[in-house]
Amino acid sequence: MGRASGDHAASGGPVTHLVVLGISGDLARRLLVPALVRLQGQGQLPPLRIWGFGAESWDTGELLAHLEAALREKPGLDLSAWQRLKGSIRYRNAEISPEGLSPLRHLEGPALFYLALPPSLFPKAVLALGELNLAQENTGWRRIAVEKPFGYDLASAQALNRLLQRYFREDQILRVDHFLGKTSVTNLLELRYRNPSLEALWERKGVAWVEITYAETLGLEGRARYYEQAGALRDMLQNHLLQLLALVVMEPPSRLEAASIRAQRAEALRSVQTAEPRLVVRGQYQGYLEEPRVAPDSPRETFVAVRLATHAPRWLGVPFYLRSGKRLAARSGFIFLAFHPSPEGQRGGLLLRLSPEVGLDLTLLGRGKPETLSFRLGPEPEFDAYEEVLLAALSGDLTPFPSQEEVEEAWRVLDPVLKAWEEGEPEVYPQGSEGPGGQMGILKPGHAWVSLRG
Ligand SMILES: NC(=O)C1=CN([C@@H]2O[C@H](COP(=O)(O)OP(=O)(O)OC[C@H]3O[C@@H](n4cnc5c(N)ncnc54)[C@H](OP(=O)(O)O)[C@@H]3O)[C@@H](O)[C@H]2O)C=CC1
Ligand SMILES: O=C1O[C@H](COP(=O)(O)O)[C@@H](O)[C@H](O)[C@H]1O
């Protein structure tokens, strides 16, 4: 690794350092580096110097070959942008410790430290960067991006926040939740903010229940080492799904800007009542125990469903059903607001499609059968979720990053479930199904999950 100080781009502007801890891992290969290449192709990146650290005993050439092989599998990616970007990447095989990261000691200029590491290494990484004084902004801004899951439970998340705050200010800390970078998710906020009339419907008088589902057909994708530690609750529910819930529950922000949006999301999460373990269901797909690197008696859940409630006056008495799982019948992410039934018992609703399609279906009742109007919202997304995350991180826009309070409130909601799950085991469900039958048991009478088969 060469010198890391006093760099200037050919244009004369200061170089931004992007330090990726864990650049040899799956996230970097499949999501972060392709996002960087696309941004490079669109001319969105400042002059960058990328310092990659990983546990593989490679040299820079070997890392580049590994990244390039993955990029070649991505259809439509502009490889000429990769040719321009790759010259700025340097790799080092090092331990995550002050000694291992010591080549960064004399880094000068603005820098983003991105923790693309197993979550168990986050504390070590923060400590190492802090002890090397890399949070100090004497020569340019400094930020740290911490991937999810942020902590393992409430106590570990609080400890990680304390450790971060020993070295970094809150506005230097970026807790990554890539769902907040999805256009389909930002659309939700825009929809509410730009259509104040919708707010009359967006509450208990208009809505009987809310369902938030993120179903995947994918399985472990070679991530057993991580998933065996995490499971569906920590992988999807604590972060992505509770953030979606916050965007539904919150009062619209007074302005579409980071401070206002983060404050409203935090307030919404604060209003959510602590989960009751009897209203949570965990499932495991048949065959999970035979996956490579999975313990033969693993209790890890690949599906979770929960019924939650909030004290927010707007939503008092309205149940929120959240679920996510792997190897289910369909890839389908959506938020469904079920309207109150007609006197004959029929129901309309508003379905916000998040994945794979993005849009909105409004079902209303007439004399015949219910009619559905489908809309697309907004233009084709300009950037994908990780592109948005990287752009925001590099520009210092905190909007897509949950605050300390948001992550801690989300853990507070789920902590009793983690404790209850120290005993018992998940219900097995067939691959390609709607998930474990037990999810029906948490619904209130007359309520139903939206079928994944459409
Ligand atoms: N992969 C994904 O799809 C997503 C991942 N994330 C998050 O991103 C983070 C990283 O995940 P992912 O890339 O999948 O994990 P991986 O296990 O694939 O990669 C982790 C990286 O950390 C390195 N590493 C592991 N142990 C050490 C060590 N002791 N010292 C130095 N480096 C080490 C690995 O090196 P080596 O490869 O050489 O072992 C690798 O570069 C996690 O927080 C995850 O939750 C978030 C969203 C999606
Ligand atoms: O963070 C994660 O998200 C993905 C699902 O998100 P998507 O944007 O790829 O649809 C999930 O597969 C993965 O397990 C989880 O870590």
Brief summary of the model shown:
With 454 residues, the protein is an alpha/beta fold.
Give the number of domains.
2
Please, how many helices? 10
H and E order: EHEHHEEHEHEHEHHEEEEEEEHHE
**Gap between N and C termini:** 53 Å
* Biggest sheet, spatial arrangement of strands: 14-13-12-11-7-10-9-8-15
- Report the bound ligands by name, code or SMILES: NADPH dihydro-nicotinamide-adenine-dinucleotide phosphate, ligand LXAUTJHC
Summed over residues and divided by their number, the pLDDT gives a mean of: 94
What is the assigned CATH homologous superfamily of the largest domain?
Dihydrodipicolinate Reductase, domain 2
Question: Which second-level CATH architecture of the largest domain applies?
Answer: 2-Layer Sandwich
CATH class identity of the largest domain: Alpha Beta
| Major sheet attributes | 9 strands, mixed
Strand content: 15-25%
Radius of gyration: 23 Å
Helix content: 25-40%
Got a strand count?
15
Summing up helix and strand content along with how strands pair, one would put the structural category as alpha/beta
CATH fold label of the largest domain: Dihydrodipicolinate Reductase, domain 2
The coarse silhouette is globular
Ranges where pLDDT stays below 50 over 5 or more residues in a row are: 2-12
Organism: Thermus scotoductus
Domain Glucose-6-phosphate dehydrogenase C-terminal: 190-443
Binding site for substrate: 178, 182, 216, 235, 326
GO molecular function: glucose-6-phosphate dehydrogenase activity; NADP binding
